[in-house]
Amino acid sequence: MPEAEFTIGAQASCSDGFCGKVTRLIIDPAARTVTHLVIERKHRGGEPGRLVPVRLVDTTTGDIRLRCTVAEFGQLDPAEETDVVANAGYRQDGSVPGYVIDGGIGVGGPGYGLGVGMGRGEATPIVVHNVVPAGETDLRRGEHVHALDGEIGRVKGFLVDPGDRHVTHVLLQEGHLWGRKEVSIPVSAVTAVDDGIRLSLTKKQVEDLPAAE
Fold this sequence. Notes:
Radius of gyration: 20 Å
Structural class: mainly beta
Mean pLDDT: 79
Largest sheet: 7 strands, mixed
Number of helices: 2
Order of helices and strands: EEEEEEEHEEEEEEEEEEEEH
Strand content: 35-45%
């Protein structure tokens, strides 16, 4: 059976319609398996993405197709959780404090609950965390891939054995050092998933890998 390609950014469909796109892949670094896909709706109106167990992914097709309905997809565990920042409001200069998403600060828009009443409402910033199961880690499209002698490109996704869900290869985005359409790196060359993916190979060794089919 051919390997399944799990690409970050791929469109995903349920049995009865479109449900969103893949924004993160969650892996078990010790077992080197994909455990979940995070899928978000294109126009979600504040609705969080969903943690989709890989057992629900139909890997017999070229697309990401789920073995569930759109309604069942909506009942899966959310891929984000929020914490309200206590005792926060307008600053002395009248500006609104930022909200935090995965360590980044934003101002205005999503992340605020504005009180209603006479005069100016109070802004309540919130912190939005990505949900990652214990002992696992997540990767987003564009995270760095590091050879022994420097960065070589960014993550596009994985090739996965559809039988046991083990990752077999890491795929690089287009625009990497060698300009090939696609470069696949054997997972045996991965030494760590830490601030991106780290390899036991040099840039030249990666360049010499056979072209991906």
